[in-house]
Design goal:
elongated, Rossmann fold, seven-stranded mixed beta sheet, 330 residues, 18 strands, alpha/beta
Length: 330
């Protein structure tokens, strides 16, 4: 367990953290045990809304990015290597004391450790539960590990670690091309990322408004830079429990289907239920998904009319209309 690595690091023979200063904990997922840090003044840095809200509910001070100076930092490395490097460099730049780095082998902690040993004085790693935790002292020069947002696919601004950072996702492109030119009314883009699908929706002149709902604050920041249209509204929220001011005419989405490295169709099921809940009685869901994903039962339970286009060898486009009334907003 990650908390056992942290307990060992802070136990006898481990590292002594400076007292009376703020400690930044960057990137912990919901459930990550911070109790080994005791009564320290902890600030959780977590841009992913569900995890951010979980720590806030525990009474933790939370931010989407670090602010000011810290006496020590703990970085929980994410799966994306460029994002992991960026978080570590960011923590080092704003920390006056040690920076602890924790992660699973499946998230690349071994390569991070090897790379850092070439750049800084690193402790021996604490290896336990298929992961490692180690620390480096302040002063390491990791400026070249910073990876700021930059303009990439078709002129859109993206950032390291966000979905489809290096190229437009082919499933999203397929769905964007399939949206009807006559689309009109109020539209919600659930899990809208950095704004590609919203940009396609906004090309339809009959669209009155677009609510782009995205749980990752970094992606949402990019979307704000990419979409300069008074009709779009941005929401940092978990799409599965977000509620619009009033029911919408259309929902457009390319829902995620991974939790970490593992496939998790239940995320898509939750997106489908959310779409049915926020649509008008004659509203329409437009969804793209990998062809193998088992969404048909969830779609059939949530909508009366279904039409699936499976002409593409990899993806299916679903048009689902007339949501079942159960659970919808007024």
């Amino acid at each position: 367990m990650a908390d056992s690595r942290l307990r060992l690091a802070l136990g006898p023979g481990g590292i002594d953290l400076p007292e009376g200063t703020r400690i930044a904990v960057v990137g912990p997922g919901a459930g990550y045990d911070l109790s080994p840090l005791g009564a320290a003044d902890i600030e959780v840095i977590q841009p992913f809304r569900p995890d951010h809200d979980w720590f806030a509910a525990q009474g933790r001070s939370c931010r989407t990015e670090p602010q000011g100076r810290y006496g020590a930092s703990l970085v929980v490395v994410p799966r994306a290597k460029a994002q992991a490097r960026h978080w570590i460099a960011m923590a080092v730049a704003q920390t006056d004391g040690p920076v602890l780095i924790d992660g699973q082998k499946t998230d690349g902690i071994d390569s991070i450790y090897r790379d850092l040993r070439k750049r800084a004085e690193a402790s021996a790693p604490i290896s336990k539960a298929h992961g490692k935790l180690f620390w480096i002292e302040a002063g390491a020069n990791l400026v070249d590990w910073r990876a700021e947002p930059q303009y990439g696919p078709d002129g859109f601004l993206t950032a390291p670690g966000v979905f489809s950072a290096d190229a437009i996702d082919p499933a999203s492109r397929l769905l964007g091309d399939a949206l009807p030119d006559a689309m009109k009314g109020r539209v919600a883009d659930l899990g809208g990322g950095w704004g590609y699908l919203s940009a396609q929706i906004l090309r339809r002149s009959g669209v009155l408004s677009v609510d782009l709902v995205e749980a990752d604050h970094v992606s949402l920041t990019c979307a704000r830079a990419n979409l300069h249209d008074a009709r779009v509204r941005f929401h940092w929220a978990d799409a599965t429990d977000w509620t619009p001011p009033e029911p919408v005419d259309h929902v457009v989405m390319n829902p995620p289907f991974h939790s970490g490295r593992a496939g998790d169709p239940s995320i898509g099921h939750a997106f489908i239920a959310a779409a049915a809940r926020i649509l008008k009685p004659n509203g329409i869901l437009w969804m793209v998904a990998n062809r193998h994903l088992p969404y048909e039962r969830a779609l059939g339970a949530a909508f009366r009319d279904l039409d699936t286009d499976e002409r593409d060898p990899k993806f299916k486009i679903v048009r689902a209309a007339k949501p079942v009334r159960k659970g919808r907003i007024a």
